[in-house]
Amino acid sequence: MRNQNIVHKDIHLGNIITNLKDTKLIDLDEGDKISNNGFYEQLRDIRNLLLVILSVLYDIDIVDYLDKSQIEDFLSVINLSHDFKEYINDQYYCSFDINKLIYPNIFLDSIDYEQVEYDKKKLSK
Q1: How many CB atoms lie within 10 A of CB 107?
Q2: What is the pLDDT of residue 70?
Q3: How many whole angstroms from its chain centre is CA 61?
């Protein structure tokens, strides 16, 4: 929604509808025009989208790891690129560079889905 200068402010699995060919964000009640704090609002949307992506990829509720402060445990098990892990960590700890806005899709093209399946088995133990 960046093209329309709108932030969703409530991205989670329950607000995403997909048929695996097309994906829609719903429940725009909290959505708003990007304000002066727009960068931080966008970052929050991106962080929440990243949580959804990781939850779907690994078939777990990644929020459980975050709530238990176990993000390091999660990152130690998965086999994603160092840069993607660093990005996830930065998003989690909100230690991002405010001069650049990075979207998760930059990293998604490099994911090895066979490795994700292997990692899912390790996570389920």
Answers
A1: 18
A2: 78
A3: 12
Report the phi/psi class of residue 62: left, alpha or beta, with left for phi > 0 and alpha for psi in -120 to 50. alpha
First to last CA, the chain: 38
Which tokens in the block code for residue 53? 């992506």
CB neighbour list of residue 35: distance below 8 Å, 6 or more residues apart: 41
Residue 18, strand partner residues: 23
Helix pair 113-123, 38-58: axis angle to 10 deg: 80
Q: Is the dihedral of CA 93, 32, 14, 50 positive or negative?
A: negative
pLDDT tens figures, 66-88 = 766 778 888 888 888 888 888 88
